[in-house]
Amino acid sequence: MGKRILVTYFSATGTTRAVAERLAKAAGADIEEIVPAEPYTAADVDWRDPNSRSSVEHQHREMRPELAHSIDITPYDVVFVGYPLWWETAPRMVRTFLESENWADKTIVTFATSGSSIRGADGVQLHDSAPAAHWIAGRRLAANVKETELAKWVAGLDL
């Protein structure tokens, strides 16, 4: 029997959502969105504004924005966690999700979207939010990545 795979993602602008949808199809996986209780607006993610919500969250590592609902990872063996790279790391919302679940006997693979940065895509900076998980280094995925490329990537992972 194959492993049960879930693709989860946080997407403030839709870019990561589109990649996650193609990844789920390529991997034969279920998909769930990491939804913030308070949705992010365009002004919230304006990285040039030091007072924007994303900028304030980045400055305060301890912040954990609330989830709109939990995601049941219980039936899954492998969970892909996708996010946009904000200052070369995952948005705090991703840590909220990771810290709200029991990751014992689960494998996590990250994927990140970014126009240019690749630092932070491997997910290493998130390990402390789910220390019980088995982590497989993720990668940055271009917004226009093809489903065939995603299928090759997934097939090459040691899941």
Describe the structure in brief.
The chain is 24% helix and 19% strand. With 159 residues, the chain is of the alpha/beta class.
The structure class reads: alpha/beta
How big is the Rg? Answer: 15 Å
Number of strands: 5
- Flag low-confidence runs: none
The count of domains is: 1
Distance between the termini: 13 Å
Q: What would you call the shape? A: globular
CATH domain topology: Rossmann fold
Protein name: Flavodoxin
GO molecular function, one term: FMN binding
Domain Flavodoxin-like: 5-159
InterPro entries: Flavodoxin/NO_synth (IPR008254), Flavoprotein-like_sf (IPR029039)
Please tell me about this protein's structure.
- The longest helix has 13 residues, at 15-27.
- It is globular, with a radius of gyration of 15 Å.
- The model has no long low-confidence stretch (mean pLDDT 87).
- The protein has a five-stranded parallel sheet with strand order 2-1-3-4-5, covered by helices on one side.
- It has one domain (5-156): Rossmann fold (3-Layer(aba) Sandwich).
- 24% of the residues lie in helices and 19% in strands.
- The chain is built from four helices and five strands; from the N terminus they run βαβαβαββα.
- Helix 1 links the parallel strand 1 and strand 2.
- The two termini are 13 Å apart.
- By secondary structure, the chain is an alpha/beta fold.
Observed structural traits:
159 residues, alpha/beta, Rossmann fold, 4 helices
Q: What is the element layout, followed by pairings?
A:
Blueprint: E1 5-9, H1 15-27, E2 30-33, H2 53-59, E3 78-84, H3 92-99, E4 107-113, E5 134-140, H4 147-156
Parallel strand pairs: 1-2, 1-3, 3-4, 4-5
Helix pairs in contact: 1-4
Organism: Bifidobacterium reuteri
Protein name: Flavodoxin
GO molecular function: FMN binding
